[in-house]
Fold this protein.
Amino acid sequence: MNSPLRNGVVFLLLIVTGCDYNEKEKYFSGMIEYVYTYESNVLDSDSLTNVRPAKGVFKYDLGSYQSSFWGKDTITYSYSGLFNKCLSQTGSITDYECEDYSIATDSVLNWKLYPTSEIIMGHSCKIFEMQKRSSWVKYYISEEAKIAPATYNKHRAYNMDIYGKNADGGLILKLEHRFKYFSMKGLAVDLSKKDNQYKAFEITDTIFINHCK
């Protein structure tokens, strides 16, 4: 026989489970691919293209991400939101190097977020700009697709936390990154959304622990 207390507990669990599912559904899991181009007034563009990545692939799940850059060498970075650490590898070599992403690699002087009428891959966008001490970035971010907070909340390296918190994690669809001697531009050319069971990488927690002691 069902008691009012038991029925209440079951109802509460259904509400909590439903809220958790809906919360997860808000965030993007999947893959996005970019192509990159380069411009410079002082450096040869062909030389830049030969040494810099021509393509990048980012994979996101609800707590981590992996970014791979194809160029003269292929470098892959696997970030764990759980550990706030990143393992990098070159090519298919599994000799990882660990970087602590709780440490800021640059300082942000100012930032701004403003609307744009541009539509990229069917997504309406906003623009997020950051003036850093050593560079300037401009991101066209999706208003519909957002990456999960666990992928940026503690991620101080490369100012991911500044972008994520102030741009509400909007998925980057186009970018411009100006350095001292050249500019890098990126444009999303493929977008594949996965379900919430998707994993950005297969590196285990044990590998993170062993390499990030």
Summary: Residues 9-19 have pLDDT under 50 and may be disordered. The helical segments are 4-25, 45-51, 160-166, 205-211.
